[in-house]
Amino acid sequence: xxxxxxxxxxxxxxxxxxxxxxxxxxxxxxxxxxxxxxxxxxxxxxxxxxxxxxxxxxxxxxxxxxxxxxxxxxxxxxxxxxxxxxxxxxxxxxxxxxxxxxxxxxxxxxxxxxxxxxxxx
Length: 121
Fold this sequence. Notes:
By secondary structure, the protein is α+β, with helices and mostly antiparallel strands. It has one domain (27-120): Lipocalin. Helix content is 20%, strand content 61%. It contains 1 helix and 8 strands. It has an 8-stranded antiparallel β-barrel. The longest helix has 24 residues, at 2-25. It is elongated, with a radius of gyration of 21 Å. The chain starts with a helix and ends with a strand.
């Protein structure tokens, strides 16, 4: 009976410490980026100024429509996602707060570029 109590208490302490350490490990950065959004479809180019919210969490970059996997070198994140019909690339520099992304969809013959300057939320 005493051993069962010790095992349960150790297990409870382990789970408590484990779940609290997950919060300490996870890193989330939210940015609001304003810049030039260019879309090219079948030779037609459209350029507008636009705001986009960007969230960086645990080496994953969330932008409208896609989640990209990132590699970090100092304060520079290089992100990429490849699918059968499209490729998405993004670059986020936290020192200068510059965010750029490029996407190309082969089936829709559509290319998007977004170059912006961000501020922390």
